[in-house]
Structure formats: C-alpha cells, structure tokens
Amino acid sequence: MFRPKLLFVFLLCTLVLIGCAPQKTANQASPEKPKTINASYVSRPINIPSVAAQQKKMFEDEFSKDGIEFKWHDISVPSNQLEALAGKSLDFSNSLNYVSAVLAKANGNDIKIISSYSRFPKGISLVVKPDGSINTVADLKGKKIALQKGTMLHEMLIRALSEVNLTTQDLELVNMDSTAASAAIAAGHVDATILPEPLLSKAVATGKVKKLRSAEGLISGLTVIAVRSEFAQAQPELVKRYLKVHKASIDWSEANHEEALSMTAKQNQMDIKGVKSLYPVFTFDMSLEEVKADLLKSASFLQEEGMIRPDVDINKLVEDLVDPSYLPTM
C-alpha cells in the first residue's frame, strides 16, 4: 500500500544526507600556487621593459604578496630558453624570437605565446666585409656566412636569398650565435652575417663591416613572451598577473623615459647616446592581433624550406601556439 508520509520522510532524509556530504572548496579544487616562478631575463638588444622591471623589482614585489619567490634567469640564447621550458626549469620566456617558438612547437615543445614583446625589423641587417667583394645579395653565392640556425635571422637569410633565386645550398652556412658571428666577420673568418642591434651598430662603427640589406620587408623582427602550457593551465591567474606586471613595466618606462634609457644603457654597457638612437627602432607592444598571421606566414615558409615536417598542420600549430586570453585590458 502506498504511503505518502513515508515517501516524504525518505526524500527529506535523502536531501539532508546530500546536503551534509563533504563538498570541494575552491581551494581544494585549485592547484597549489608554486613556491617559485622562473623567467628568462634578456636585456638585449635594448629590452627596456625587462631592464626596468628587474631594476624596480616589479615582479618580485607582485608575487611576494602570495609568498612566491620570483627568479630571473639570464638566458639570451633562444635554444637554451626553449630547453629550459621543456625541462620545467623555466616558466616564462621573455623576448623569444618567433621563429624559434614556431619550430619548438612543431617539434613537440608544448608552449603558448601569450603576448608580443617587441618588433624591430629595422634593427636587424645583413652585413658584409667592406672590401667590395659583396655588393648585392646575389654576390653571396659561394661565400661563407655565419648566423644561428632556427632563428628569425635564419629565416631572413632564406627570404633574402629567394629574392635573387638562391638558397642556402648556394653558400656555406656556419652555425654560431650573433656575438660570435660579429667577431668572426671582424676577424675575416666569414664573409657575411646577420646582426641585430646593438651588435649591428657596434660592428658597423668599427669599419670592418658594412650594411647590405635590412630585415624590413623580409621578416617582422617579432619577439614574444611564451609560457609553459602546463603552467598556464594550472595557474591561469598567475599568468594574467605576470602580463599585468609586464604592462606596468612598459607604462613605467614610457612615463620615466630618461631613467629607463639610462638603466638600459648601464645594464647593456652601452653609451646613452647609442641607446637613444636605437630606441625609435623598437616597438614594445603586447598586442597579438597581427601575430597569428605573421606566424602562419612564417610557418608556411619554414615548412616549404623543409624546417617543419610536411605532415604538420601549420594552421592548427599556430592556433594552438597563440593564446591571447591572458592579456590585460589595453
């Protein structure tokens, strides 16, 4: 026989028991905050926001609010930054050149580009010995050129050569970083190299090299801020705060222009006049609006050149690589 009162009591007890069951709190559901945040520190070419942030301890002050230690790591070589990201000894990579980021993602390094850092195509140039043996890009055929492979400088060379129907197979390519390449051409060990500022101005000033072709019209000269995908997924609020501090460093540098330039000159052991002359060449802008198009263009080119496997879906690669969701309101 159906008894409504018993059914009511049963349902009531069930609801009470459900209400008494332990519920996960927000703190329990969220991963613990890390004890340390590690980021690369790159002061060159003239990375004014990073210099200002380090000197003013902007990141340290922000994350100490949560008892998190913030550590800078002076790592300028892109491959070393990417290796550190892959090994989880680095959480954020500042001023990472876009070609290195694309190639790393294509090779399985799970990173996210979360902000632009700078653009400086006018601050990069192909330089040659001033002996008159090389007067055009076409004259590079059969010559020895030094630069770091897998970087934007490498892409610039390939693009410049393609304009005159040459490839890297038509010359001898020596793999070395820009500092070593600058010394190599000055010593006469190579015929050409591609240098970014401030190495470019210093090399030209010696009279041992001359500019042949700037990067303008060939590459964007883009550098970015990247983060480990695992870190971003686990700590999205910390990533957002990181970018807010970076924006604050840009704003501070603009508001305190002379002091910021002076800091950068001292940090990079440059004359203040040199920093002031280079400053207009650089754009420090966090926007990612044009970045996907730039990266897709680059990825397509790199795939055609055999630097990205033909089976890689470059549209998906770029879509997975760039994430603007962490950017602060501009």
Question: What's a quick, concise take on this entry?
Answer:
This protein has helices spanning 4-20, 26-29, 48-55, 58-63, 78-86, 98-106, 152-162, 178-186, 199-205, 229-234, 236-255, 257-267, 272-278, 291-304, 314-321; strands at 36-40, 69-73, 92-97, 111-119, 124-128, 144-147, 172-175, 192-196, 210-214, 222-228.
Features:
alpha/beta, D-Maltodextrin-Binding Protein, domain 2, three-stranded antiparallel beta sheet, 15 helices, 10 strands, 17% strand
Description:
This protein is α/β, with parallel strands linked by helices and 330 residues long. It folds into 2 domains: 191 residues, Periplasmic binding protein-like II (D-Maltodextrin-Binding Protein, domain 2, 3-Layer(aba) Sandwich); 93 residues, 3-Layer(aba) Sandwich (D-Maltodextrin-Binding Protein, domain 2), CATH 3.40.190.10. Helices cover 44% and strands 17% of the residues. The protein is built from 15 helices and 10 strands. The strands form 3 sheets. Strands 7-6-8-5-9 form a 5-stranded mixed beta sheet, with helices on both faces. Strands 3-10-4 form a 3-stranded antiparallel beta sheet. The chain has a two-stranded parallel ribbon with strand order 1-2. Strand 6, helix 7 and strand 7 form a beta-alpha-beta unit. 40% of the residues are buried. The N terminus is likely disordered.
